[in-house]
Amino acid sequence: MTDTQELVEQAKNGDQSAFTALLKPHLKIGYNVCYRITGSQHDAEDALAEAMGLAFRGMAKFRGDAKFETWFYRIAANASKELMRRKKEAVYIQDDEGGEIQLADPSVPDAFSAVEGMGDVTTALNSLSADAREAFVLASVVGMKIAEIASHQGSSVSATKVRLHRARRTLKDMMNTDGTLKVQF
């Protein structure tokens, strides 16, 4: 039994220190997954915290069909998507004339909290559909195989290949070689 397998078994039995040791090497990439999906540092931190809690509570259900890190990255991606879904519920207030004013547009990414130099990339990523952005992040950041992404998204391998190809082509068409946007929004 490898060290990872031993840590998994201990964590499945509720050992918090084993879970922490298992999770720690994967937090940076987990954060990157969350950030690429949410487009916001604050939201990424919230999604990552949620993913960590979900992973700990769900550890007993971990079957080992995939590597632990793949399982955790899927949880992080799902937590990020769920956070974005919840944020789409806009907040309205009544104005003096009885009309409604939207306080915030939650579909607009928080580009100001982007890591220095990453704003254009984040803007380009956020222009993709949620499924295309997720497929791109899981393939490019996490390194998941297309079959794993397809399974995760509940789609066929061929549909996932097309989604990933279109996402890459769209990003390539939007970006200059120096990583800046060709057209500013």
The CATH class designation of the largest domain is Mainly Alpha
Name the structural class: mainly alpha
**CATH H-level name of the largest domain... which superfamily?**
RNA polymerase sigma factor, region 2, helix turn helix motif
What CATH calls the topology of the largest domain is Rna Polymerase Sigma Factor, Chain: A
Helix content: 55-70%
Spatial strand order of the main sheet: 1-2
Query: What is the element string, with H for helices and E for strands?
Result: HHHHHEEHHHH
Query: What's the structural domain tally?
Result: 2
Mean pLDDT: 80
What summary fits the major beta sheet?
A: 2 strands, antiparallel
Number of E-type strands: 2
Count of alpha/pi helices: 9
What distance lies between the first and last C-alpha atoms, to the nearest angstrom? 53 Å
> What does the overall shape look like?
globular
- Which value, in Å, is the CA radius of gyration? 19 Å
